Structure formats: C-alpha cells, structure tokens
Structure prediction request, 121 residues.
Amino acid sequence: DVQLQACGGGLVQPGGSLRVSCAASGFTFENYIMTWARQAPGKGPEWVSSINWNGAITDYAGSMKGRFTISRDNAKSTLYLQMNNLEPEDTAVYYCAKWYSSNWASGVDYWGKGTQVTVSS
Prediction:
C-alpha cells in the first residue's frame, strides 16, 4: 500500500527556518512527480511546490518562491521542503502528495498525512 508520512513540523519564530520531510513507501518513488501542499486554519488547501522525478524541475507558488526549496532523495524515498524566512502566514498543516506518474499532465492521486508547522513568536 502507498504510504506518505510527513514529519519535521513544529513551532518556529518568524524569520526562522524549518525542514519538513516525507517518507514514502509502497511504490517506486523515483517514478513519480511529488508535491507539497498546505492548509491553514479556516482556509482551503493551497499548493506549495512540485518536483519532477529526478529533481531537475521544480515549481513554487508565488509567495514561496525564494523562501522554500523542494528536493528529493530517491535512494531514501524521501521528499523534503526547506522553509526559510518563515512568516506567521505560513502556519498550516503541510502535506506531501504523489502524482499518478512522471507526466506533468497526470495530477495528484494520493495524499499523505500532514505535519503541523506553526510560526509564532
């Protein structure tokens, strides 16, 4: 069975940094596009970033460009999101997701459990 387990969330002060990880199992990780998304309290889901199978192509939502970095380690079947210069507005539950394939036209087919990130002084 596909499993995606995000971890590494926590409480961080504004301006601080945090790296969240997503351990994948039950599928051949390197064959799939992966995505991070988040959901803030009282708001709908928001796409954060996506990465192609080998990490050569990445994309970010506008407000995260220059602050967040998505990466992956296919040997460890793990997805990462490095978040710098965090703002209170980044407070949310962060989720990782697997796409149907390595094709950008395919879309997300599985969401993992999230990890809470709270940015507050």
